[in-house]
Design goal:
- This protein has a single domain (about 30-170), classed as de novo design (two linked rop proteins) (Up-down Bundle).
- The protein has helices spanning about 1-60, 65-80, 85-105, 110-115, 115-150, 155-160, 175.
- It has 7 helices and no strands.
């Protein structure tokens, strides 16, 4: 009878640990999904701002058709991304196109003085900062989740219920990784 009671207590403890590990993995997976949705909200805001910025600039920049086309194409790819890896790559291309656009804007002093353009540019800069914070939050959640599904004993539960590793939101474009050079 005592042996049966000990076995029952051990089984109850193991079941409680198993349920706790499973619930923790569910919570972490949901946190990763939530962090991704925060990035998605900011990317949507960015995608909505870009056409307004481009339209404002078009009146001043008659000879920059290639620049506008590059931004439009990069924006379309970014909006059509279906997973983290695609979004990461497409957003890198969009960032590069926007950087080139901002360099071209430097050649148009009237445009740089336009209040509507300045307001849109400031909003875009603010959005870029929010995207950077959201990416950091997402990557932190992915790190914690990936660690949990790979570490013992929760890796056993993760394996039983097909919890899979998540991708980080990484910079695909080497130009974005490089440190900008400031020259006077």
């Amino acid at each position: 009878m005592e042996v049966m009671l000990i076995v029952l207590v051990v089984l109850i403890i193991l079941a409680a640990l198993f349920i706790g590990a499973y619930n923790k993995l569910i919570r972490l997976r949901n946190q990763v999904d939530n962090a991704w949705s925060q990035i998605d909200v900011q990317l949507k805001r960015r995608h909505d701002l870009i056409p307004n910025l481009v339209e404002t600039a078009k009146g001043y920049m008659q000879h920059e058709r290639g620049t506008f086309e590059a931004i439009t194409e990069a924006r379309s790819k970014a909006m059509g991304a279906h997973n983290v890896a695609e979004a990461s790559q497409a957003e890198g291309q969009l960032t590069e196109a926007l950087s080139k656009f901002m360099l071209v804007v430097e050649n148009y002093p009237d445009l740089k003085a336009n209040q509507n353009f300045l307001s849109l540019q400031e909003t875009l800069t603010s959005t870029e900062n929010k995207i950077a914070f959201a990416r950091q939050g997402y990557n932190d959640q992915v790190l914690f989740y990936n660690n949990k599904i790979q570490m013992f004993p929760s890796n056993m539960v993760a394996g039983m219920f097909n919890f899979s590793k998540r991708d980080y939101f990484e910079i695909e474009n080497e130009a974005e990784r490089s440190v900008p050079q400031v020259k006077f």
